[in-house]
Amino acid sequence: MSQQTKKAYALKVPKQKGEKAIRILASLGLLDKTVRVTPEDDFLLVPMAEKPEPKYITKIKKSLGTFEMVTNEFAIQSKRPKSALEVAAERLPHGLREIFPRSMDFVGDIAVVEIPDNLAKYKTVVGESILEAHRNVRTVLAKSGAVRGVCRLREFEVIAGAPDTETIHKEHGCRYFVDLGKVYFSPRLSHEHLRVASQVKEGEAVVDMFAGAGPFSVLIAKLRSDVMVYAVDVNPDAVRYLEKNVTVNGVFGKVLPVLGDTRTVVHKKLRGSADRVIMNLPETAVEYVDVACEALKPEGGTMHYYEFVEGLSAMEVAKKHLTEAINRTGCSIRGFSSARIVREVAPFKWQVALDAIIS
Predict the structure, then answer these.
(1) CATH tag for 184-358 (out of 3.40.50.2300, 3.20.20.60, 3.40.50.150, 3.30.470.30)
(2) 84-164: which CATH topology?
(3) When comparing pLDDT for 154 and 281, which is higher?
(4) Burial of 56 (C-beta count, 10 Å sphere; 0-12/13-18/19+)
(5) What tens digit of pLDDT does each residue of 255-278 get?
């Protein structure tokens, strides 16, 4: 099938002025977005929706300097896919369009969305609209409860697509088999997984105290050839997926999955073993600071600590909580190599990450 074309006026400008030409035409409402900007030797032809009036030509000259106005046959842009909101707008009452979810999480081929109460009656419309707009999505899940318990599980409702919560998620060159109905997994921590894993040095021993399906542990082992990661979790389903992820990512022998309560496991098997501990249980990590200190080698090490904190002084509050908890163990903090807000989880409530140097 031949490419459809359209004849249009255009600015012919040197390539280095192409972006500037696009911006000025867009600001004047003259940019033709239905066709493609076209290269011609060392120039770009930037299409216009109509021949500009003299007053606009003056503004263009002032911005670009010299240019040539030509006509050209342009290739018509393929029609862009509709967003989920655009699809839903045709099916929702006008007053509800403004509360359509603007953000969602994608875990493999599953989309996870939070449905506002006022939109609950139309949750199927939301789900089907997401399926239509995102062709790589197979299942749409709606959050139907808060994250609860030491396993950090959340209840979901399938609102569109296949009735399945298992998927394969790809992140930083790793593949993770995970069932969102049985194991906690957040794609919003992707940067955090890489940030922490990149700090691990060759020869280190790491205790991942709440490992889940292994996004910290597996990535560390992928990035380092000489490392030992003890990946602990109390959730049998999480450890089952972790074991599978260790195998499929080729890190067997560098990640040791351990099923059990991290307090018991560390006390019985991992005391004084770690150069580094990871504490990604922000709801209650402060209660396990003594365990983390017990896991670190006698000379100390690095603690990656996470906490949910409310208020405008979230960072200072988190530092205070961690410092007080560490002081109670007899250990001490030499300093913080990093202190950052990972994400906002509710109005004025943040997930904070502290990298503390412990001695």
Answers:
(1) 3.40.50.150
(2) GMP Synthetase; Chain A, domain 3 (3.30.300)
(3) 281
(4) middle
(5) 999 999 999 999 999 999 999 999
